[in-house]
Amino acid sequence: MIWFWSFVAYSFTGFLLEVAYASAAGGRPDRKGLLVLPLCPVYGLGACLILLLSQWVDRWPAALFLLGGLAATAVEYGAGLYHEKVLGVSFWDYGDLPGSLQGRVCLPFSLVWGVLALALVYGVHPVILPWLRRIPAPVGWAALATLLADGLVTALLLRARGDTACLRWYER
After folding, report:
1. What sign has the CA pseudo-torsion 150, 153, 159, 161?
2. Exposed e or buried b per residue across 108-146, where buried means at least 16 C-beta atoms within 10 angstroms of its C-beta
3. 169, part of any domain
4. What is the distance between the alpha carbons of residues 34 and 43, in angstroms, rounded to a whole number?
5. pTM of the predicted model, to two decimals?
6. 52 found inside a domain
7. Do 114 and 121 form a contact (C-beta atoms < 8 A)?
8. At what angle do helices 107-119 and 61-82 cross, to 10 degrees?
9. pLDDT for 7-27, tens place per residue?
10. Which contiguous run of DSSP H or E holds residue 92?
11. Alpha carbon of 33 to those of 25, 47, 119, 162: distances in Å?
12. Which domain holds residue 113?
């Protein structure tokens, strides 16, 4: 369950980063995640992939920066493609930023992901890992069921409506 809890922890952290970034930049108020749970799964997937990579490159910060940034960028591109092609929505568009690839990823954010990879592997994850290990298995299974249900409802709603505004129930 450690991988699941890592995914949840970094999806929640990503949600907090998105809220802070939107507040600072005056961006769109989209939740960029799920209907109910305050999670951005793209961050959780990216963090888990970085943690997998770090097992081979954690002794080389430059390699971790580069490969971590590339891994998170690949996850972001895949998530953007999934949202567009499968669900018919788009949560972000980097088309006006330098190094944009079809508006799904861009160079400035890829560099940010590299920096966050270093912070994740050398700072954050070693601190929270002991706490994640203490979560009882039954709690994990209940959380997994909740996450899957929210993910399914979110996907069905996005596909049916074709607009991310349907996730902003809290504004009504």
Report:
1. negative
2. ebbebbbebbbebbeeebeeeeeebeeeeeeebeebeee
3. no
4. 13
5. 0.92
6. yes
7. no
8. 120
9. 999 999 999 998 888 888 887
10. none
11. 19, 15, 23, 15
12. 2-25+37-160
